[in-house]
Write a structure and sequence with these properties.
3 domains; MutS, DNA mismatch repair protein, domain I; DNA polymerase, domain 1; 423 residues; binds magnesium ion; alpha+beta; five-stranded antiparallel sheet; Dna Ligase, domain 1
Length: 423
Amino acid sequence: MSSNRPRVVLHVDMNAFFASVEVKERPWLAGRPVLVGGTGRRGVVASASYEARTCGARSAMPMGQARRLCPQAVVLPGNFELYHSYSRRLHEVLARFSPLVEAVGLDEAYLDVSGAGGLFGPPEAMAASVRQQVRAELGLDCSVGAGPNKLVAKLASKAAKPRACRGRLLAGPGIVVVAEAEVLDFLRPLPVASLWGVGPAGAARLARLGVTSVRQVAALSPGALEAALGRVAGKLLHELAWGRDPRPVQPGRPAKSVGREETYAYDLVSADEMRLRVARMADAVASRVRRSGQAFRTVTLKVRYADFTTVTRSHTFPAPQVSGPVLAGQAEALLGGLGPAGGVRLLGVSASGLVPAQACPGHQLELGLALPGQSRAEAAWARVSAAVDQVRARFGDEAVAPGSALARAAPRTGKGSAPAREG
Ligand SMILES: [Mg+2]
């Protein structure tokens, strides 16, 4: 980190991202409450428009509850390919402001702009340019917080957001800048749960000590905090309550894993069906890994039973892999003797140990380029893989399933469409 120039971190956070993308794509939804998320019996809200929030709906709420609170809401299943494409455009905009951009999920990022003042002016002006360019290029609103570190920038962007309050929508300021000298005044009225790492358990333990605000945390001695929360957490919380957060903005930190989970409206009770669902998810995960230009080394399978017992199994390959069939084969092998027992409510497949695809000897094959010495079957598979990736990139993961999965899935899902059977 350079010199004694004051550090300036921006936190950019899209407002109600998935719901806002849906409204942008379907302008007739503007002003209506929109819920994006699982529409099945156990669906959960992934994103709620501010109109839906004024009825009390919010993300992470069971969809059934959100619909009862907001019966007039338009409910959409979500289109993650579309959200990814907006996310890519967001990052193209952010990259103009700093080479130090750390993505958090699809719709948030930290920017270290400490060196950029000469180009873009003071933090207020920089934040205003970010908002204006995001608005111009994505047609969506974001909130921007600025502060001397990540903790303060993140809390500032939260303070900048619109909020639903007693059935009314209050426009936020859009930009909140907290200068070094204002940090303590800004933090102290906030609830203790605003600080990193204070989960519900930690908050409950502090509440038993009568500590609910950052002001009260800051008033405690480090020793008292360590006694309450343990040495590491206590020390960290003391630092944060005093507005000190040395974590750097880490640009280009790649996703640690790519995965998919499905929660079923009705428990799966057949081993065949488990296998077929796992194969289909594995194929979609492999496709997503390839599109990100990466290869995987570890495959993890997750099975959650009706009684919430959860089994997780992994396998790590000695070398990175890119192939869908390899991932699917391994996921099925991990399923091994696991049967449906009393019913399966959730299955998940993920790929981790991600490395750039160049590190994988076979990667050209999967990108559809013929390799010297490649068999005809391999070349054919490579072309199919590339075609499947293109279809998925345009129409979403559900557009293509392995042939065997489709053939067997059709009777149950009742979906008549079989868009592509190349697999
Ligand atoms: Mg957001």
